[in-house]
Amino acid sequence: DRFHGVWPHWLNGETGRVQPFSRYDDGGDLVETSFLVAGLLTVREYFLDGNVREKELAAKIDRLWREVEWNWYTRDGQNVLYWHWSPNHGWQMNHKITGYNECLITYVLAASSPTYPILPEVYHQGWAQEGAIAEESGAYGYVLELKHHADPEKGGPLFWAHYSYLGLDPRGLTDKYAGYWDLNVAHTMINRQHCIENPHGYEGYGENCWGLTASYSVPGAVQYFEGRTDEQPPKGNSEQTGYAAHHPALDLGVITPTAALSSFPYAPDEVMPVIRHFYENLGDRIWGEYGFYDAFSQEYAWYPKRYLAIDQGPVPVMIENQRSGLLWNLFMQNDDVQRGLKLLGFESPHFN
Fold this sequence. Notes:
The chain is mostly helical. It is built from twelve helices and eight strands. The strands form four sheets. Strands 1-2 form a two-stranded antiparallel sheet. It has a two-stranded antiparallel ribbon with strand order 3-4. Strands 5-6 form a two-stranded antiparallel sheet. The chain starts with 27 loop residues before the first strand and ends in a 9-residue tail after the last helix.
């Protein structure tokens, strides 16, 4: 199922049919689609000059890319992109995509489309809010050049520094609002330093155990943290999970391995000890057949043996980007992407 070329947030893997994410979210999800398309374009570049079967695959990807109607999601020509559209509920979700968060790639791809592009004004007025996005803040001596709505001082969940940048190379990437490498390094280091200082005194936190981002979470931890209940989350119950977008202002005592591990390019010297600690010291408590489990809490003796694909995926991608730049180089060599970035006023060492 696709909705003006846009895939849903969830679909049934056996049938390909939409699986509603919530009551009104049963249609196209432009942000999830942009993550998928970024991956597809990277694959396309890899196979573009291959054998007959590989070229056929590249051609199929190109067709899918060209069928995404990015400009439809401006909701009748507004200068902003909308996250959702449903054939049953229209624009009921009414969620404008504005920065700064994980969605930069959505605007980059929308501007890069060879068939249904947005105008630059949609980026500058919608995403960048006519420049209001460029509001400096920070902590621990690190500067965040863009306003993180979740926590302007210490930044949002670390996946904001990962999802858009699995293919989009932040090295030397700049526009009139920010330098994206410096932004992501600062975001990473603030998140790390918060865990080292550990203002809530959670067990296990430190230089070798840090990283806050969206993941499974201790049941009831959000309510307890926000003071909506006096009942402390139970210790040792790994059968049940909640979900939370952990970040310094919503620190529930839960460490999510993808947070530090997917930050490997930004802080390799700080991340490698975390990898070794997780593997060598915590071992089977957080390691399984497909790598590290999604999240854990030493504070609550909570070690669910569960995975979330969207957290697993960035780990090998970002490790490889640190090793060789492979995924960054492939995505950034795409002619459409280069044209779209230039249209929005970006500069990059990748430009021809």
